[in-house]
Amino acid sequence: MTDEKLAIVVLAAGQGTRMKSALPKLLHPLAGAPIVAHVLATARALDAARVLAVVRHERDLVAAAVEAELPGTVIVDQDDVPGTGRAVELALDALGDFDGEVLVLNGDVPLLNADTLAGFLAQHRGTGVAASVLSAHYADPSGYGRIVRSGDGAFDRIVEQKDASEAELALDEINAGIYAFGAGALRDQLANLTTDNAQGEKYLTDVIGLLRAAGSEVEALPVSEPWLVAGINDRAQLAETAARLNALIVRGWQLNGVTIEDPATTWIDLAVRIEPDVTIRPGTQLKGATAIATGAVVGPDTTLVDCEIGANAEVKRTDATLAVIGEGASVGPFAYLRPGTVLDASGKIGTFVETKNARIGRGSKVPHLSYIGDTEIGVESNVGAGSITANYDGVNKHRTSIGSHVRTGSHGVFVAPVTIGDGAYTGAGTVVRKDVPAGALAINVAPQRNIEGWVEQHRSGTAAAEAAAAAREARETDVD
Description:
Layout: E1 3-12, E2 29-30, E3 33-34, H1 35-45, E4 48-55, H2 59-69, E5 74-77, H3 84-95, E6 101-106, H4 114-127, E7 131-137, E8 146-149, E9 155-159, H5 166-169, E10 173-182, H6 183-190, H7 205-213, E11 218-222, H8 235-255, E12 259-260, E13 267-268, E14 273-274, E15 279-280, E16 285-287, E17 291-292, E18 297-298, E19 303-305, E20 308-309, E21 314-315, E22 318-321, E23 324-325, E24 330-331, E25 335-337, E26 342-343, E27 348-351, E28 354-360, E29 365-368, E30 371-377, E31 382-383, E32 388-390, E33 400-402, E34 407-408, E35 413-415, E36 418-420, E37 425-426, E38 431-432, E39 441-442, H9 454-458, H10 463-479
């Protein structure tokens, strides 16, 4: 049910210069979704009455990503006054006379989950304090503001590293930058913020100091694991966070009955769905909305993007995008499945085969060294090794239709548009330019010519010429 007394503000206005990227920091992908999408998913899970995102850098791109992930989020534009305090001030203005709790989240802290925040909110509400600060104990707190507590362990203040004494620098409890405020107390103190500091910004941390100076109670609540509040500021931190999240995803699937032989080399996006008794072999990447049915074996060294894999299918050393692999089918090794590939039950796409916009029927096989594009193949047909569907005439793409129970010879070329009827055969090396009727054999009639002595005449001095001469002499000796 919607929590009518909860509003969530997501800070998403920063430029993220340390990423050194044309893409806004919050839109960098993490387990198949933008960084900010993970924060918004957590906000959704908390069922807040209002969710607001404060944007500025690359405003339209970030706002579009926010709307796509959590429709109905209120977009708040930060003005020329910099700082997190100003961002929250503008968000609070957009909330009007809201009088519940305001939870402030950073858009670049993607691993903080809903259960942790629900506990944080419950404790904040239970104590009745004006504000609560989420904190963490870091082995190396360098660069972070420190939580300073009084002798009895109660929260006293936040001190930034540049202002900290030697004793305060030794503290390992840091300010995670996640806050819960009573809306009234927050509104009162935001009005007192100034830009009278070295950076010329309105700092949200100053609100905590103002509340304490006014005699209000503030509490700091540490998280159970410090990585929960780790932010992403550069690509090294992005990689570290991705590895942490992937380890959690992989473990979750293992506990759900999926065999993952090498978690260190297996990467799985959040949207992927895997049924129990699937086996994932080393070096496998499962991306997008890929779904894998029970009993399937995927990998090693396989990348699947938005694919459907049927029960008991096997896909190894394959790169596939927007492909459907049927029950009991076999793909690879070294297959390349482009969008629109559908391999029906018990079918086969074999070694060094590329397919595109092709449907291969039940039990049909394309075993070796072939390109099958813009093609439909019926049931129980076999396409010979080295076959090509010549689907492009330089202007338009055309389709090839191969019927059921067809047998095509090796090294065939099918010049589309062309139809091979049910039960037809084609000879090895045939270039098919005309439709082949059902049950017919298509061949290109070209008698073989052997030009005697050609190698000795035209390649004299080579090993081949010497071998040919020796063979000729031996043959002539035998005749004599």
